[in-house]
Design brief:
Elements (H helix, E strand, L loop, with lengths): L14 H15 L4 E3 L12 E5 L3 E7 L8 E6 L2 E8 L18 E8 L10 E5 L2 E7 L15
Antiparallel strand pairs: 1-6, 2-3, 3-8, 4-5, 5-6, 7-8
Length: 152
């Protein structure tokens, strides 16, 4: 019997496709998680991101639990959106004996290049329950136009 190895965070995709899929997405959106820790004691942290497209806009949804709205920074330049933030490590003065540490923290910076660009003035950002949602409206040129067929 043969088994496919599945990455726990990507349970819907077999491992052999992960690298190819991630490379394609990175090429298309110009994005790879650029994570940096500010101290040695901080682990790299990169929030999970969904990117979807509809007729009106590109929508980026990022899971950023434990990050205050004030600690998020969103920059727009040309057809690139940069999301930055910092998730602080919560610790007490006394030394606890941890049995397992899985929660990540630290600084992150993600860049997303939107193909065809977007309308900067109409970009909207919403933050609710640890989820950041960016709506990047498409320019009129990218919206599909329906053409009526004439004749018999």
């Amino acid at each position: 019997m043969s088994y496919l190895t599945v990455h726990p965070k990507r349970a819907t995709r077999p491992t052999l496709l992960n690298d190819e899929w991630d490379t394609l997405l990175s090429q298309f959106f110009g994005s790879a998680p650029a994570c940096q820790a500010s101290t040695e004691s901080e682990a790299n942290y990169a929030p999970a991101v969904d990117i979807q497209e509809n007729d009106e806009a590109f929508v980026i949804t990022a899971d950023v639990p434990g990050i205050a709205k004030e600690d998020l920074k969103i920059d727009i330049l040309d057809n690139t959106v940069t999301i930055q933030g910092h998730r602080k490590h919560e610790s007490e003065e006394k030394k606890d004996n941890f049995h397992r540490v899985e929660r990540s923290y630290g600084s992150f910076k993600r860049n997303f290049k939107i193909p065809g660009g977007f309308v900067h003035d109409n970009t909207k950002a919403a933050f609710e329950n640890g989820v950041l949602t960016l709506a990047l409206p498409k320019p009129d040129l990218q919206k599909p136009k329906r053409i009526e067929v004439s004749g018999n």
